[in-house]
Design a protein that fits this description.
By secondary structure, the chain is an all-alpha fold. It has a domain at about 1-115: Glycerol uptake facilitator protein, CATH 1.20.1080. It has helices at about 1-20, 20-50, 50-70, 80-85, 90-125, 160-165. The N and C termini lie far apart (about 70 Å).
């Protein structure tokens, strides 16, 4: 029974070590993206619910995506390719090649998610505040208008002001 399990691990790990470097890099990037989505889910759920338990469960979304997509994560499934090398089914150079491309790909995937998240935050900082909903209270009591929000630019004369400030209008 142990021998059968060992053979199954070697059979599973050999194709991972025989892939071309672009495939190793791509699965490493996808692993980083999967974990990045997990972190994003954690942050959103924690912000919306305030629950650490629910946020932790949301983080698992990234790992589920990682397993379903057969992506590589540098710290996940390390023993499978090591077992292949120990059994003589591959060279140590193949193992270092897999680890190297995965180590390069994981941060690239994570940075892609982070870049999109931060890029969206930067873009929304330049948007004017949303228009008040009909029937909503406007400003502080007494009918005075609310002071302008310093986080948003005041576009005094429409598109010409937008273009003058260097924004794409």
């Amino acid at each position: 029974m142990v021998e059968r399990s060992f053979d199954r691990i070697v059979d599973e790990g050999r194709p991972r070590l025989e892939r071309l470097w672009p495939d190793m890099l791509a699965t490493g990037i996808m692993g980083g993206i999967g974990v990045g989505f997990g972190v994003l889910a954690l942050l959103v759920v924690e912000h919306e619910t305030g629950s650490d338990v629910l946020a932790g469960l949301a983080f698992s979304i990234g790992f589920i995506a990682l397993r379903l997509g057969h992506s590589e994560l540098f710290t996940e499934g390390v023993l499978v390719p090591v077992t292949v090398v120990a059994a003589g089914g591959a060279r140590i150079r193949d193992l270092f090649r897999l680890w190297g491309w995965t180590l390069v790909g994981n941060p690239l995937g994570g940075w892609a998610i982070l870049g999109n998240l931060l890029g969206g935050m930067v873009l929304t900082d330049h948007l004017p505040p949303a228009a008040p909903q009909p029937g909503a209270a406007h400003g502080p009591p007494g009918g005075q208008p609310a002071p302008p929000d310093p986080r948003y630019p005041v576009l005094d004369d429409g598109l010409s002001s937008c273009a003058r400030r260097g924004y794409r209008c």
